[in-house]
Amino acid sequence: MALSFFSLVTGLYVLHFSIALILVNKEVPQTRGMLYPRESETREVRSLDGIWNFVRSDQANPTQGVRDEWYAKELSKSRPTIPMPVPASYNDITTDNLRDHVGTVWYDRKFFVPRSWAKDQRIWLRFGSVHYEAYVWINGQKVVKHEMGHLPFEAEVTDLLSYGAENRITVMCDNALIQTTVPQGRITEVPNDGGMTIVQSYTFDFFNYAGIHRSVHLYTTPRTFIEEVEVTTNLSKDATIGEVFYSVSVNGSAANEADNVLHIQANLYDKEGVLVANATSDGKLGGKLQVNQVKPWWPYLMHPEPGYLYQLEIKLLATNDELLDVYRLKVGVRTLSWNSQQFLINGKPVYFRGFGRHEDADIRGKGLDNALMVRDFNLLKWIGANAYRTSHYPYSEESMQFADEHGIMIIDECPSVDTENYSQELLGKHKSSLEQLIHRDRNHPSVVMWSIANEPRTGSVGADSYFELVANYTRSLDKTRPITAAIAVPNTQDKAGRSLDIISFNRYNAWYSNAGRLDMVTQNVIDEAVAWNKRYNKPIIMSEYGADTLEGLHMQPAYVWSEEFQTEVFSRHFKAFDELRKKGWFIGEFVWNFADFKTAQSYTRVGGNKKGVFTRARQPKAAAHLLRKRYFALGRDLDQCSFPEDLFTYIADLIS
Ligand code: GCB
Question: For ligand 1, atom 5, which residue shows the shortest CA distance?
Answer without folding.
Answer: 205
